[in-house]
Amino acid sequence: MTQFLPAQTRPGRLSLAVADPYAVSSFYQDVVGLDQFGYTESSATLGAGETPLVELTDGSDREPRTDAQAGLYHVAFRYPSQEALGAALHRVESLYRLDGATDHGVTHSLYLTDPAGNGVELFVDQPRADWPENEAGEVTMQTQPLDLDALRGAGEPETDAPAGTTIGHFHLEVTDLAGATEFYRDGLGLDISREIGDMARFLAVGDAHHHLGLTTYQERTEPATGRGLDWIEFLTPTEAALEAARERFEAIGVAVESRENGFAVTDPDGIGVRLSLADQ
């Protein structure tokens, strides 16, 4: 049993339970730029190229998420170029509203909130050689204003996100940082890439800045039972990696449910997590 997932592991999809799938689907099409792969009265699937990224389900029978509940802080869509992020900025400014824009050193990032109240980040990675590091040689993330004029100039208005757009990371608000870290590190097999005291852990595979953020900034105290995030998915390249992760979860007492292409577990805050075999 290996300790961590292979470096080729990456985020896959996420599922959101929302009161109005139609309105939320329009946001992910028109603003994020995703294609609609399928739509019914109660669900929608959207993605880029041939890759599904977001599944929306009818959550009208659930209560809205409260300020005390754990869940999604944001889902981060990674565009393949500065030009694609510039095009996204044109869409945001013409059709929606921007909550914030930050130069993190490792990324250029735009922040929004979807019509259902879920946080959304649109970003592009910066060249690896330009990532800021501390004196110990560890990658750090800065918080500087993003030059929006330069970003507008980098892209032309485009209606669609290009093929190669993926989910870059998930950022979760958790109730217990130690318990969540045990689940995602010791069970799933992500490695810690950065820590901020007792408030945040960032985890990844390979040399990514992060594939998952866990934070307690909002001091959430209850599990994720309302509308919002249902599950997140990671894709891994081999059956051996799936089996090793299954054994890790079983070793820490987490129930594992087999699926056709992998398995599903539930994190300490009630959020579903899927590990699936990536298409080769």
TrEMBL record:
Keywords: Dioxygenase, Oxidoreductase
PROSITE patterns: VOC
Keyword Oxidoreductase in record: yes
Residue stretches making up the VOC domain: 10-125, 166-280
Keyword Oxidoreductase appears in the UniProt entry: yes
Domain of life the protein comes from: Archaea
Molecular function via GO: dioxygenase activity
Pfam family, one: Glyoxalase
Name of the protein this chain belongs to: Glyoxalase/bleomycin resistance protein/dioxygenase
